[in-house]
Amino acid sequence: MIYNMLNKNSSEDTLRSLGLMTLGSRLKRLGERLQAEVQPILSELAPPVAAGQHPLLAALSKHGALTVGELAALLGVAQPGITRAVGQLAGIGLVAVTTAAEDGRRRLVSLSPDGVAFVAAAREGVWLRVEKAVADLCAGFGDELLAHIGSIEDGLARKPLTARAVEERQDDLA
Amino acid sequence: MIYNMLNKNSSEDTLRSLGLMTLGSRLKRLGERLQAEVQPILSELAPPVAAGQHPLLAALSKHGALTVGELAALLGVAQPGITRAVGQLAGIGLVAVTTAAEDGRRRLVSLSPDGVAFVAAAREGVWLRVEKAVADLCAGFGDELLAHIGSIEDGLARKPLTARAVEERQDDLA
DNA sequence: GCTATTTATATAACATGATATATAACATGT
DNA sequence: ACATGTTATATATCATGTTATATAAATAGC
């Protein structure tokens, strides 16, 4: 019976065996795994910043001051998450927040001087190392993978999944 | 200026432009997006079950009764998450939990009669429709994408990311 | 100018990942 | 038989996604 126990599931992966039916769960799991593995590398640059917040800093560096809503749109996440992340980054002094002059509702988020230095150092150091490590992991098919991901994202924007499944049902009725 | 605002970021995606450096964040985002889009389809089968919990039911259906630890290993997630999910599924009557006879620490989780019927119906209905919708979304490259994902998962198991980045640093020192 | 509607964002609440730890059961060694 | 170490799992805590909503500012329409 101990033999059965070990054989039963010692190296099986249910998500893998379920294929495209659980693609979302599998991508999420792998994404979280990668973020967790990348975190120690990123944290070598002080102050430690969550892996998921580095793109926010990169967006500010690239575009200059942005509103909460703009950041949410650029990063493809919900607004309250950005509010929270910005609050945390402001707390450690990497970003500064002001109220937009032309619209009192808008909050303008920008890199602080410390934030500017942080991003510059990250570009030359940890970001580069992370990219290389991930490229090594992808063993040459990185570009192809990114293209597939892009294609799925574009496909979802064009036509949501529920619309694809609805058509399937109509086919069944015919 | 309104023109500038719109042009600034109307369709740009920071994660996409950052490429492999933010692969984890991007995979996580897409995975959560897919789970969210799949949820309404799955919820057509009563009772509603979270997208992330369907694989747990599939694992029980395939392997029979499993312990909490075995489920965590099969699904590649942490044990407390399984404890919670099992509690929820037991709450809606799809799984049953007993104590293993040969080891009083182990909890044996199995599909209830309602759970067996649920899985059977899902197999013929919503799981099939989800798989087809996702395959449609992948536009023919589904198998290739799954292979890439598998390769990354295997690559992480063989050699963690931090080990890959460490070697990079040693190269820099030389 | 006033009213109704829309918009930007903070806040609340919740779901779902994780790590850490307490507790009990089991295994090992003397 | 007893002490020590290991293991399975519930529980606590936290981080990070989300949706919903309240509040204030801005916009649209008359």
Automatic annotation (TrEMBL), chains A, B:
User: Per UniProt, which keywords does this protein have?
Assistant: DNA-binding
Q: Which domain of life is it from?
A: Bacteria
Matches recorded under InterPro entries: ArsR-like_HTH, HTH-type_Bedaq_tolerance, HTH_MarR-typ, WH-like_DNA-bd_sf, WH_DNA-bd_sf
Q: Which CDD domains match?
A: HTH_ARSR
Q: Which residues form the HTH marR-type domain?
A: 20-158
One of the entry's Gene Ontology molecular-function terms is: DNA binding
* Name this protein carries in UniProt: DNA-binding transcriptional regulator, MarR family
Q: Which organism is it from?
A: Chelatococcus sambhunathii
